[in-house]
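U., I forgot to send this yesterday:
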Amino acid sequence: MAVSAARRAAKELIVFFEIRREKAAPGRGQELARWMDEQVIPVHEAGGMTVVGAFTDTADEDAFVWIRQFRDEEEREEVIARVHRDPVFGSEIRPRLGEMLAGAAETVRLVPTAHSKLA
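Result:
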C-alpha cells in the first residue's frame, strides 16, 4: 500500500515529542490544570509551539501532563526562547511558577516509530 505524498511529508516534519509532567504544590492540582489550559499553554502556542494534548493524571490529583511536538532541536530551542521572551510569560507566568509547582517537571522525549499514528 503506497503512502501518500502528504503523509510522507508530514512524517518528515514530526521528529519528536516531549511529554512533560508538572507537579502542583499539594492540593493545587485543579488550579494548576486550569492555569495551564487558560494561560500557560496559550502563551506557548502563541510563541509557535505545537501542544498536542493536555491531561490530568487520574492517579495523582496534583499532576498535570502535556505533550509538546517539535520538528527538531533547533525549532525547540527557538520556540522556547520566543516563549520566554514573551512579556506575558515574564510578568504573569514566570512569577507564579515557584508558588504553583512542587519542583521541576519530568520530561520524556519520544520519537515516533514508522508504525505510530503520530508519525
